[in-house]
Amino acid sequence: MKISSPGWIMLTLLILSQPVAAQVSKGDMVHITELVKRNGTHLTGRNLHLLAAPGYPDAVHLDEGPGSGSLWLEGIRFGEGSIEFDVRGKNLAQQSFVGLAFHGQSDSVYDVIYFRPFNFLSPDSIRQHHSVQYVSLPQFDWERLRNEFPGKYEQSVQPAPNPDGWIHARICCRSGTISVFVNHQAKPCLVVRQLNDRRDGEIGFWVGHGSAGDFANLSVSTGQ
What order of strands is seen across the sheet that includes strand 41-44? Predict the structure, then answer.
């Protein structure tokens, strides 16, 4: 490893002959940095850094880039249950799309719940309504869903979080229904029916076009 700038550690990935997979069971906390160091992750479209953030010792950063990018956590399968994590984007219009991919079948086939932090505090109620989004790729991207089902697969987040700060997200999947909770609120900010029949797959941190993001404190609960 080498220090690239104060507070940042640039990771030099070691190519191992056999990546070390991690298995999770009910309520397991996933040690993200340990997975990265053991080559238990698969990176697409981005560069990865370990992040030294106060209060977040197990955090990672995905940098900006064209198109979307993901850090897949290999060997961790998720079907039904819940996924909790902390995520931080930024208050910069059209340049912060951060979330989590799940039920991944490949680098291009997966579902995503993601946030647009720059809309959290927008004075425009329409933009506020575009704060949290569900998409099912490759068939149902945000543009198709917004055009064909306006207001159904994206919602506001209330109370509005700090767009430049960390937020805590919990994604629950039960019998084809996806519910999203933010900052330990009892009421979900988004409830949708899954737009495919995938009920199992890999999970990974996700950033959209031109976006960077910080991620920490991943916990996966499987089953009931």
Answer: 41-44, 69-78, 201-207, 98-104, 110-115, 132-137, 154-155
Residue range(s) defining the domain that contains residue 165: 62-214
Q: 79 in a domain, yes or no?
A: yes
Distance CA 213, CA 96 (A): 8
> Is 193 a domain residue?
yes
- The CATH code of the domain that includes 188 is 2.60.120.560
Q: Which residue has the tokens 């219009």?
A: 93
Task: Quick: pLDDT tens for 52-101.
Answer: 889 999 999 999 999 999 999 998 999 999 999 999 999 999 999 999 99
Q: Is the pLDDT of residue 183 over 90?
A: yes
What's the rounded Cα separation, in Å, for the pair 179 and 173? 7
Q: How many domains does the chain have?
A: 1
